[in-house]
Amino acid sequence: MRVLITGGTGFVGAWSAKAIADAGHDVRFFVRNPHRLTTSAAKIGVDTSDYAIGDITDRASVITALDGCDAVLHAAALVATDTKHAEQMLATNIEGARNVLGTAARLGLDPIIHVSSFSALFTPDLDMLTTDLPVIGGKDAYGQSKAQVELYARGMQDGGAPVNITYPGMVLGPPAGDQFGEAAEGVQAALQMGLLPGRNAAWTLVDVRDLAAVHLGLIERGKGARRYMAGGTRVPLPELASMLGDASGKALHVLPVPDTVLRGVGKLVDQFDRFLPFDTPITEAAMQYYTQMPPADDSPSERELGVTYRDPRETLADTVAGLRAVGRL
Predict the structure, then answer these.
(1) Where would one find coiled-coil regions in this protein (predicted)?
(2) Measured distance CA(318)–CA(274) in Å, rounded
(3) Cα 297 from Cα 302, distance rounded (Å)
(4) What is the pTM of this model?
(5) Which domains are seen in the chain, by residue range?
(6) Per-residue pLDDT tens for 81-123?
(7) What are phi and psi of 306, to 5 degrees?
(8) How far is CA 314 from CA 186, 232, 252, in A?
(9) Residue 210 above 60 pLDDT?
(10) What 8-state DSSP symbol labels residue 176?
C-alpha cells in the first residue's frame, strides 16, 4: 500500500513510518516543513523522498496529499501543557482529525489509523486501561483535546468507517534523529534531580518501536473498525528508579512524598500558571497521571497483531543513551 503519514517528522510518526516502509509499503509524508524530515525520519533510515507539503488544518492540502494513497496513519497533533495554548490546541487537533480522518473516509481509504492516547480514557482510580472505556479525558487541555478527537473517531467507527484507533502509554525509546517523545522530558528531569517523588506513583511506558509494530499490524485492508491499547508495562517507582539507575550509572532515590501532596501542588500551579513566565510540566492532570496510572490491557494487540512488547529496561536504556547522544544529559 501507499500510506500517508501525518506527524512523520515527530517521534511516533517517524518510527511508525520506518516499520511500515521496512515491511515493503510505500510511505508518503505530509509535512509543513520538508527539511524536518532530514533531521528525523531520514536519520533512522526511512526514504523521505515522497512528501506533500501542507497543514492538517488546511483541507485542500490534505486532499492533495491523500491523492493516490491507500491508507493513512494520523499521528500529527498539537501538544502543549501551557493552558494559554488550550484553545488553539483543541481547535487544531479536532479540525485536523476532521480533515484527515473524514477526508480519508470519503475517499475510500482503508485502513484509517488514528493515534489517540490513554489520556482520552483516563479517570482516577481505574483498575485497567481498556479500549471499551468511555471517553472522558483528563483535566488538562491536551487530554480534553484528545477526548474530543476520540469522540469524533468513534463516531466514524459507529458509522461504518474503517477507522483504527491506538492508545499509547508514555512513549519512550531511541530518538528519531533529534526527535524524542514528551515522556523523555520526565526521564531527563528524574536523572537531573536524582530522585523520583511519590509513593504509589508509576509510569506505564511503551517502546516507540513496539507502538510502531502495532501500527504496522493495522496496515491491512478489509478489517473494519478496531481499537487497541498500546500502553506497554506499568513500572512502579522503586523499579523505575532501579532501571533508570542501571541505564545511567547514577543512583536514583524515591522520595516518599504523599501522592495527594503532589496532586495538590499540581492544582496550585494550575491556579497561577497564567502568571508564570515559563512553561511547566507540573499540572494537576500530570500529577494525576503520575500518581494514579493504571496498567493497560495490551493482550489483544499481542494476540491479534503478534506484537511482543519489550522489557522496559531496554526502552529506558535506549532513551537514556539517546538523551546523552544529543547532549541533554
Answers:
(1) none
(2) 36
(3) 10
(4) 0.94
(5) 2-180+206-231+295-310 (3.40.50.720)
(6) 555 666 777 888 899 999 999 999 999 999 999 999 998 999 8
(7) 70, 25
(8) 17, 13, 18
(9) yes
(10) B
